Amino acid sequence: MCGELTSVVMVNLCFKCRRFGHSKTNCRGTLTCARCAVAGHESTGCTAVEKCVNCQGNHTSFSRSCPTWELEKEVVTTKFKNNISFPEARRLVKAQTPIEGKRYASVVDKNHPVYQTTLCPNCHNVVTMSNFPSNSKSPQPVSIASSSVIANENISPKPSSKTSKYPTASQDSSGFQIVKNKKKSKASSKSPSVNNNQVKPETASKFWKKSPSQTPFSAPVTAHPKSNQNKPYQNETTSGKAVNLHSDSSRGNSSDSESELSVTSGLSQIDFPAKLKKSAHKNSVALGLADEGLVHKDLPSIFSGLPQIPDLQLHPSEEDEDLQMNCEVSASPTCETFLSSNNPLKLRGYNSVRKDAATGSNHSGGVCILTSNLYPSTPLTLHTSLQAVAVQVHVRTLVTVCSVYLPPQDVISQQDLDTLVDQLPTPFILLGDFNGHSALWGSDVTNSRGRQIERFISNNCLCLLNNDEKTYFHEPTRTFHSLDLAICSPALMPLLNFSVGCDLHNSDHFPLIVSYADSGGAIQYPPRYLFQRADWEKFLQLADVTESMVCTADITEAVQNVVDCIINAANNSIPKCSPRLKKFRRPWWNEACRDSRREEKKQWNIFRRYPTTENHVAFKRAKALARRIRRRNQRESWINFISSITSSISSKQLWEKVKAANGIYREISFPVLNTGNATHSAPLDIANTLGHAFAQVSAHDSYSSDFRTIKNRAERTPLRFTARSALPYNSEFRMFEFQKALSLAHDTSPGPDGITYNMLRHLNTTSLSHLLFLFNRIWTEQKYPSQWHEAIVIPILKPGKDPSNPLHYRPIALTSCLCKTFEIMVNARLIFELEKQGCIPPLLSGPSRAHLL
């Protein structure tokens, strides 16, 4: 049995929007009927008249007789025959396919006077009939610049059909003059044809101001937009206005332009390192503050796809460690999070404010802002139907940061945008994916969403921080576009710098970085001593407390001498940690991950400079290899971590590992405090407000009148410390009491002097004897050192309380370890004497010896 072998070409057709070129999983369009081309319902049971979505013909969208299907079939055949990518195959097929109304044969009309020749009666040369005057009235001639390649060809453009995307200069082909060998200007080489009111990106103002007498902004019309754009459904067909095909850039302003631009000078831009990653959902966007600025970040990729698993806690991946290493993020607005209310959001070191898009099982859209715990911040409540959230963050001043996502398929009301801005306290920064194209921010064409954003900026007197940088990479067509915008109040314009990151980091959006023009000082932690690396022998020699230090007349001066001696010895023998912010490094990140990541960056840089198919394949191969190495190391690290939980470890280590596995940790953030009508956001104002609140709680006026009466009566009674006989608890302290107090003390944070219990335990015997002599002087002379009156107060928020109320915090005081050691010695004597005299009931366990500390 024999038969003919035929090849089957599988055309890529989306079963959701019924268009060619993509699949249903990557579709961002709306559900469309395959029979009647009406959005909103399935084709099952539809009895309407057949209509194609692609060509508007009288057939179904999946018909094999569709011209668009034939074109897509040719694209697929060319792709596999030549072993090239789909964008290259599409460009090749479109270049070979004549456009309707643009074929050479259709434009040559021998009956037209411009192509009829005759002999000139004066010079006897062959000339065209159009050079002779005519009595008939004709339209104004339009000059067409001709290159040297087609200098000898006579081509007259005809009116385009309804389906043509390019507007024509005139509906009548008469009156054309062929201009040969005319040199093109630089402006015309970049844009084939533009109208007179075209706004050029390099000269467009970032500050729009509209007077009341002006009419609404007139959008630019482009005659030849690019065929392959980032999001094809956003490109509009410009029609209804004749476009002058003359490409001379020296033409003046158009009389149609009724908008007025006022330009303000900006500051120089600075490139900041940033990064972004990609999840299974494309077109996700994010932002944040690097070096006290904002970096756009992709939220789903932060957690490596984990938001799809509601039962798992979300943890950042290794690529966010790069972001934290490269920039100090105070606020990270994130658009298109793809999260639902069932997905928990937990990122260490950040507080989150989010708004999820309720779209059923497909969680598209959604916005979120991650604010660093190092900067005081408070969320704002917005009354809007848009996908937007806002917070107030204190960086240099209190700035409102708003994250917005405008879906491309939704119709956004201009009133909604204006209402959103009215709710934002000034100054503010508006960041997000607006899905609009405009020449104002570097796009090649302008669509309706772009004109709407232009009117929004103009009507509210806002400033656009974007330049002409591309913020989005469309992988199927390997093209770059500008979709993400940074808009701010006029007061912030001269203070901010704007830049776009150069690396995608597995995403399709580049990070936007907004930072202050002056670098300023970065936040630093107080350095701590690293006792595991201490040189105790050197410390023992340097920390020599002599007798002359403790025998000065003033006890306060003697205590200061001891503190200076011990601190100087510690600084010379014990290293300190870096004051920089702590990096939460991943335990599975190793040299293999670092090398694969470096190779991925290298291949991306090559592809970005030379976007060829070979470089694109090399980049995707390096990205897949890096992802495979990371996943393998994550799996092995998790197995080793679980295997370390055995019966031989202590209970403390066991619970530490269990908490680490579940992501349980305690974090302290800076709140924005509210006292009456005042708001305190600066760190110094917050500290003073909390200190004033703590002082009010323990002030004399806070007690009741009955208690104040008893207190005043008791304070008027003089205290007598003299006794007729020498009591043992009044005697001087001995060395064994001092050593026992040091052994009972737990390692805690030091007080203002910086001395720890670990330093006191490593003093030599002579230094301990002299220190004991100082304690006895304080005990016998009854003089308390002034340094011990100072303490570092840490506010701890009470459970379930409002963080903006300063009265909802509990103060924790860190006093000097020298003072606390002396307190332990005194407390031990008092407890012993009270138990000896029977003053403490046996059932009372609070002040027993087991609770001395």
TrEMBL record:
SUPFAM superfamilies on file: DNase I-like, Retrovirus zinc finger-like domains
Superkingdom of the organism of origin: Eukaryota
Entry's Gene Ontology molecular function annotations: catalytic activity; nucleic acid binding; zinc ion binding
Domain CCHC-type: 13-29, 32-48
Start-end of Low complexity biased regions: 156-170, 188-197, 244-262
Compositionally biased residues, Polar residues: 225-241
Region Disordered: start-end pairs: 151-262
Name of one Pfam family that matches: Exo_endo_phos_2
Matching InterPro entries: Endo/exonu/phosph_ase_sf, Endo/exonuclease/phosphatase, RdDP_mobile_element, Znf_CCHC, Znf_CCHC_sf
Protein name listed in UniProt: CCHC-type domain-containing protein
Organism encoding this protein: Araneus ventricosus (Orbweaver spider)
